[in-house]
Amino acid sequence: MYEVIIVIYLIVALTIIGFVLIQQGKGADMGASFGSGGSNTVFGAGGSGNFLTRVTAILAVVFFALSLLLGNLSSQSDTDVILDAEKPAITSDIPVAPVSNSDIPQ
Fold it and tell me: Degrees (nearest 5) of the Cα angle 20, 27, 25?
């Protein structure tokens, strides 16, 4: 379950990056007024701005929801989430000799 959510989380993150890079900046509208506005006809008269903005907003909400879900799952787990195994106890193979009062210098 955790691994599936991580994969979806990474896909959403990469998709957000792609949609943000595709969007035009504020200064791109200036070029449309000088004759290079033919690229907006694919998405209609309003251009691609509304579509890309909506998809980016939806992906951002999904990203934050998955972040909260993953944080909640990892904080409630008593086991190691990545390895899906219990944490090993710290043990030592070195024998320890008992200390008596005569061994302590005074």
Answer: 0
Task: Give per-residue pLDDT as tens, 48-77.
Answer: 668 888 999 999 999 999 999 999 988 876
Residue positions counted in the chain: 106
SS (H, E, C) 45-92: CCCCHHHHHHHHHHHHHHHHHHHHHHHHHHHHCCCECCCCECCCCCCC
**pTM score:** 0.55
Structure tokens at 73: 């799952």
Report the DSSP beta bridge partners of residue 80: 85
Q: What is the dihedral of CA 80, 83, 88, 90, to 10 degrees?
A: -90
CA–CA separation, 98 and 84 (whole Å): 38
Q: How far apart are CA 13 and CA 6, in angstroms?
A: 10
Domain ranges (residues) in the chain: 1-24+46-75
